Each structure stands twice: as structure tokens, then as C-alpha cells.
Amino acid sequence: xxxxxxxxxxxxxxxxxxxxxxxxxxxxxxxxxxxxxxxxxxxxxxxxxxxxxxxxxxxxxxxxxxxxxxxxxxxxxxxxxxxxxxxxxxxxxxxxxxxxxxxxxxxxxxxxxxxxxxxxxxxxxxxxxxxxxxxxxxxxxxxxxxxxxxxxxxxxxxxxxxxxxxxxxxxxxxxxxxxxxxxxxxxxxxxxxxxxxxxxxxxxxxxxxxxxxxxxxxxxxxxxxxxxxxxxxxxxxxxxxxxxxxxxxxxxxxxxxxxxxxxxxxxxxxxxxxxxxxxxxxxxxxxxxxxxxxxxxxxxxxxxxxxxxxxxxxxxxxxxxxxxxxxxxxxxxxxxxxxxxxxxxxxxxxxxxxxxxxxxxxxxxxxxxxxxxxxxxxxxxxxxxxxxxxxxxxxxxxxxxxxxxxxxxxxxxxxxxxxxxxxxxxxxxxxxxxxxxxxxxxxxxxxxxxxxxxxxxxxxxxxxxxxxxxxxxxxxxxxxxxxxxxxxxxxxxxxxxxxxxxxxxxxxxxxxxxxxxxxxxxxxxxxxxxxxxxxxxxxxxxxxxxxxxxxxxxxxxxxxxxxxxxxxxxxxxxxxxxxxxxxxxxxxxxxxxxxxxxxxxxxxxxxxxxxxxxxxxxxxxxxxxxxxxxxxxxxxxxxxxxxxxxxxxxxxxxxxxxxxxxxxxxxxxxxxxxxxxxxxxxxxxxxxxxxxxxxxxxxxxxxxxxxxxxxxxxxxxxxxxxxxxxxxxxxxxxxxxxxxxxxxxxxxxxxxxxxxxxxxxxxxxxxxxxxxxxxxxxxxxxxxxx
Length: 786
Known about the structure:
Elements: H1 9-29, E1 35-41, E2 44-49, E3 53-60, E4 63-69, E5 93-96, E6 100-104, E7 109-113, E8 119-122, E9 128-142, E10 145-156, E11 163-168, E12 180-183, E13 190-197, E14 201-205, E15 211-214, E16 220-228, E17 231-237, H2 241-252, E18 265-267, H3 275-287, E19 294-297, H4 317-326, E20 330-335, E21 338-339, H5 344-352, E22 372-373, H6 379-392, E23 400-403, E24 422-423, E25 426-427, H7 435-450, E26 458-460, E27 472-475, H8 483-497, E28 504-505, H9 519-532, E29 538-539, H10 556-572, H11 574-587, E30 592-594, H12 595-598, E31 612-614, E32 618-620, E33 630-635, E34 639-642, E35 648-650, E36 653-658, E37 666-669, E38 673-676, E39 691-695, E40 701-707, E41 720-728, E42 733-736, E43 740-742, E44 750-756, E45 773-777, E46 782-785
Parallel strand pairs: 18-19, 18-29, 19-20, 20-23, 23-26, 26-27, 27-28, 39-44
Antiparallel strand pairs: 1-2, 2-3, 3-4, 4-17, 5-6, 6-7, 7-8, 8-9, 9-10, 10-16, 11-13, 12-15, 13-14, 14-17, 15-16, 21-22, 24-25, 30-31, 31-32, 32-37, 33-36, 34-35, 34-37, 38-39, 40-41, 41-42, 41-43, 42-46, 44-45
């Protein structure tokens, strides 16, 4: 954990003087673009400037849409991201003075200076949040298209302000204050142009071309895009980050529920090579009684890429799927957007003109002449792609889709392969970041059309804004199997969480390379798995040395015990996790939560990118140093319970937490209500009954237990049930409220084993042998006194 000491007063004065000088100098250097007219419209204000036109659209009390363009027509090309284009404009006012035009909503003030068109976003009390100081459109020709380069120059006011989001990047940086981030899709780097500030605002930069957020001089933020019709962005005001994320999802689409099985354990490696091997691995999990729900078939199960035909090692794919389903396993399979010559699909798609123009993929690691990527901007090509997947795979019962190389493929060259090419929708440079959104959208929309009985699950190597609406879980790409890479995944995943897409995972243990017979790698794998237990999706994967496997028993009996214990914990927490999933869908919640989400005004939490909350209760503290037996943990303002011992610690404080190899430092916030289910070997083995309800006294608390049919989309029609739970700390009373809703198969009567956690009571993974209260619940309100 990095600690920054306050600067001496003389040094602070020096920086203040320098800052004033630079701000004044910037005002002198920047050509002024004064406002010459302001016209109030039904949904906002149209400003005429000396050069160009500016529109401020009031979308909601907390959302303002800015567009700056050469003409008042505000002409636009296709936009694949924005899901909500019609807004019920809220009440707002416009006030004019000689200096400024001010737009005020119930939560936000936006002032436009007449002298230069600068825009200051303020809280209602007038306190400035951030200033859009200037914006430019420079005519350019890109990929044969006459277009503009869009640029905006933003003044950052907060000296301790943290900047986050922007997708997933591998620099190991948590707080992007003082950094520059490219918004461009690459293997291991995911581009999402949503910037979130600890000061309580967010900016969604509405552009699909390559862009950059440059804050290398920490007081100024410079945002640019290579291809644009206008400077176009949405401003969100929270101030809480959950509100900003909710606004982003209202704009770009909500995240659907995944099947309950998806929140269990995923077994994968590079790669299973036959039908017999896949089935045998699943059966061994059941024989060893190790909890698992999912197994994965990685690449090269085909004869030719793009023809979706199993090779001779899979003689009866339908029987394989049926065998796995009989063992209560779900099967995910790798599919790519590439097509290899020699297949009927290739010939047909080439004839239709559905490949990226003039592009034949022949880069490492394939070295295959003529390999082509399909044009995902073409709706007919997307439909054909899904139809082939449906006919060959979904129709025989495949459950989930591993959509690999969705950048698309970037290895072997510096730039994205869509650049410089013509797509069905237009220039590849204009739409370069859209491919993962459109590619995954083809499968999501196709499966939703084909069936409402099985929820879509897509694991994608890349994502773009809006991908959450396609049931996408992104993973962090083909990373190395070492401690350096492991450490970098934590801030990468936390920034991704603040980019509005809730589901994310990594290759536990790294993709290349690691051997389970190596004691050093075993330690790394165990630590990675412990952390992965509290990722939104728990999945192992990687290239392991032969004859090593990547199954939990492959790492020796000592490691196996630790791995299985954390796997058990994941399954005991399924009632908690599945309820978080419902919050994610119904309330735009974020399950993997950087500390800044819950402790936004805590100056120390702003800079901590290696600890996080898993839901409202768990403070998770990964161990990322080899040989470590403890780690520094910052506990923010609250009372905290050590999950393993029940010891109570009051924050804010720094704790040297014990961290032997079999223990991940975990703390539970006082006021938490944590429902824990019975031991199971797969997610739906039996109803979640009895449920152990652990109460952590010291503050009031609420939690809503959610249940449904575990799969299918009836929940969207209201077929589900919720049970609100409330802990009143002053009265020492737990209220289990009346159940709301119902669904087929719902338990009419169930048992809650209530445990008031404390030292050596209600601790660790296993169920408490002596609960404080045992309650029979039939759907009517019950009150439990401590």
C-alpha cells in the first residue's frame, strides 16, 4: 500500500502559485470561442458560438448530454452503444447573466461562460465539480473519409481527486490521476470510454473510434478521438459512484441475470482434447465431491475454424453434452469470429462480402493463409454467424459461449486489424472499438430469440460500452503466470468494475505458463484462487506443462485442500452472491467494489487499488507477494469482524493481518447480514435450506434475499421472490419481513439458522454448530430478538 505524506506548507504554496500561473497562461494561449446566442429549447439549450454550435440536453436530474458540432443540424453516423435515445426531460431552469448562462436541475448546475464557451459543472450549492474549458473539431481525412478529430480540454479542480474506469488496462495503475490511457481494443486491454471521479461525477465520451484520456499533467484532462462528427459526451452526477454507474447503464443498457450455475465454479484449461477427456474430468469432480457447475472446451475442437464441426476426437457431441448434463455440469465452448478457407461457410461468406474488406488474417500464432474475420457491423453477417452457432451447438444443448479474440485478434501487429478497412457500416477507423459489442450482441440476441429457457452466458476477451446488456463476462486476456501479472489484475479488474460492466474474471494462475508440479507455481495458484473466489465469476484456466492438469487435484494434496475449502466457501455464499446478482440487474449494482465506491470521501481509500468490497459485507484483501504470511490491510471507518476469528476491530486503522497460505484476510463490516447456504456440489443440487443468517452487530443493516427458478427469463416477468431482512442494532432485533412474489418450486416453508457473529462464533467456512436462534419461516414476518 502506497502512502503519500502531506507536502510542506511552503511546497503547497509553490504548487498553488504554479497552478494559478498555468491556468492563467492556458486562458491566454487558448483561442476564445465566445457564445453569441443562447436559445432555450424543450430539452435544453442551443448555444451559437463564434465557431460551431453547442447543445446542452437535459436528460435527467443527474444526466446532461453535450454535443458540439460545426452546424446546428448535429448530423451523426450510426451509434451502436447508446440504448436510450428518448428521455422524459425533468424540470429545469435557465438563468442568464452578462457573464454566464446557467442550466439548473434538481441536482446539478451547469454554467456556460459567454466569454469563451467554457462549461462549469457544479453542485447545487455552487461548488465546482469540473470544467470543460474548451473543445475543438479539426478537419481530417481518415481512411478516405472526410471527418473531424475531436478534442476536449478539461480543468480538474480536486487536488485529491481520483480518476477511474476506462475499461481494463494492464499498467498496474489504479488511480489514473496523472496518467494517460488509450481507448483501443487489444488482447488484455479493454476499451470503455467511461471516466469516473471520486469527486462524484462521471463522463461517458460518446465516441467509438480510437481515443485517449490524457491526464499526465494532473490538473488538466485532455480527451481526444481520431474520428468524429462532433464533440459528444454525457455528464453524470452522483455524487455516489453507484448512481453514476446506474446512469451509465440507463444510457447503454442493463445487465441481465446469469443462470445460477454461472456463479459457481468453472473448470477450464488449455486445452481438453477429446470428448472422453471432458466427460472424465467432470465425473472425477463428482467422484471427489468437489463443488463445480461448469466445464469448458477451449479451441481446436473443430476441423476448420469457422465451420462449427467437431473433429474426430468428439465422435458424438450430443452424447457428450447429455453426459455432462446428466452429471449436472454445464458446458461452455470456444467460438471465434475467424473463418478458414476450405469450409463452406468461408466460401459463402466471402461471396456475400461479409469479411472485413481486403483483410486476410495470416499473423501468428496461426500462420494460415487467407484466414478472415467477419464484419460484425453487417446485420446479415451477424445473423448468419448466430444461425451457424445455433444449428451446430445450441441445438444440441451447449450452455455458454467463450467468444475469444473479440478485439478482434491483435497479436502479431501493433494496431487493431479493423483500422484502414471498410466495413458495412462505414470506416473501420470510425467503428474500431465496436467489434466486441456487436459480435457478442449477435449471440446474445440470437439465443434470446431462439429460447427463453436458458440464460445467456458469454465469456469475451474484449468488451465495449454497452456490453453488459449482452450478458457478457469479460476476462483479462492472455496474461502471464507470474506474481507480477497477478498483482496487475487487481487494479485492472477494479477499474473495469467502475466502467459499468459488472461481470469480470481472469485466468486463475495466468494463461502462460505454469506447472502444478512446481511448488512456487502452486503457491501462486492458491493465492490467485483465493482472490478469484470473490471475483464476480470464479474460473480457472491456463496452459499447464504436460502431463500436468489444471484441475484442483492437480496441485497436490496440501494445495487441493485449500482450493477446495475456498470452493466450498464460494458455494456456501451462493444465496448471498445470487442476491447480489439480482441487485446488479434490478438496481444497477456492482458486486466487486473498489473501496472508493463505499468510502468515496476517505482520502486513503481513494488510492487503494488492491483491496475491495465483495457486496456490502466482505472486505477482501488479496495476498500478492510470494512467501507472505501477513499483509497490511486498511480498514475504513466502521467496525469490522475478522471472518476467520470473529475478532472485532474499529476503523479507520491499518492492520497487519495474518495471511498463512490457507487464509485470505477477510473482514465483515458491522451491520452486515450474510446468508450462507448448505454444503452443495453444484448450485442447484438442493434448495438453499437451511440458510445460516450471520448477523454482524455494531450498526443497522439490511439485505434482501432473492430467489427464482435459477435459469430462464421468467424472472423478467416478475416470477421471483424476495425476502427483506433488517437488523436493528439498538433494539438487537432481526426482522425477517414478509416474502414478496413467488415462483414454481419455491419453498413454502424454510429454516433460518440465525447466528450473531462474535469471537469464535459464526466464523469461517463451515456452518455454526450452535446457532443462536432457529426460525421456521412460512413467508410471514418473523422477529428475532438477540
